[in-house]
Specification:
The structure is a homodimer of 159-residue chains.
Chain A: H1 2-21, H2 28-56, H3 64-79, H4 111-129, H5 133-154
Helix pairs in contact in A: 1-4, 2-3, 2-5, 3-4, 4-5
């Protein structure tokens, strides 16, 4: 299953590359919808990571069922088709209201690898989260690193 | 698999009921996060339904791969754990910025059944979308009805 997901994410990367190779002029409404969708997707990561991160830090009482559910959600989210979110022309040099850097669409973009790392981290969290708090805590670092693996190189700072 | 999903959604309904039976006073920040998450989830439905609906109406050229991907996304979305979105006290009589009616949390709430209908419709769409345009068109009505199955009884009008 892990291999299937990594292949899925590689396909996403290929789709992004293919879109970037097209004429590069999506309809502004399509661009807006794509940006809203990817931000909604990030919102859902944030929602479930708040549960897992809160438990890891001891700010929320550990609950195996809730932790497992949040980790299941992460895995479902990484599996969700995402190629349509990343239309060429939806970078922060082209439009407002996004922090997505043009480097995402560059020929040497490593977004596919970064997405693959997120799949791996989410699946490791899924295996760990429902076991016990120590297992969850052992898996949370890799999830945070996987978030940063895209955000650091490919997202503009908030300020 | 279909049965599993229906059971999953029934579990969501039970979770909502269980939450409603608790003290009913979630933290305002938790409420806000939950509302944002469910609205993000709806945004993602909207994004993928725009593809499927656009193709069904002939506004977007039918593309088997894109249709299949959008339908896969719908199925992933209906499978996503959603119990945490529906905190008691997050209805439109209690807070701003939501159209969720208190009836969702009522003892006679039928949200579990409505969610089950959405699962069924999404899975039927997944089986149809990549086949051909006629199959997609045959499946889109049930998806729209399933959306309405929750929105009509449980969402306030936009005006």
């Amino acid at each position: 299953m892990r291999k299937t997901l990594v292949v899925t994410l590689a396909t996403v990367a290929i789709s992004v590359a293919a879109l970037a190779g097209a004429d590069g002029h999506a309809d502004p409404k399509q661009i807006e919808a794509a940006v809203k969708a990817r931000q909604a997707h990030m919102q859902l990561y944030s929602f479930h990571l708040a549960t897992l991160g809160g438990m890891a830090k001891g700010e929320i009482a550990y609950d195996a069922e809730a932790a497992g559910s949040a980790a299941d959600a992460l895995v479902s989210l990484v599996q969700l088709p995402q190629g349509g979110y990343w239309l060429p022309g939806s970078d922060n040099a082209s439009i407002e209201n996004t922090r997505a850097l043009p480097a995402i669409w560059a020929a040497d973009s490593k977004v596919g690898e970064a997405a693959g790392a997120m799949v791996e981290a989410a699946m490791a969290m899924q295996a760990a989260a429902g076991t016990d708090l120590a297992a969850l805590q052992g898996a949370i670092g890799a999830v945070g690193e996987a978030c940063g693996g895209c955000h650091k190189p490919y997202r503009a700072s908030a300020n």
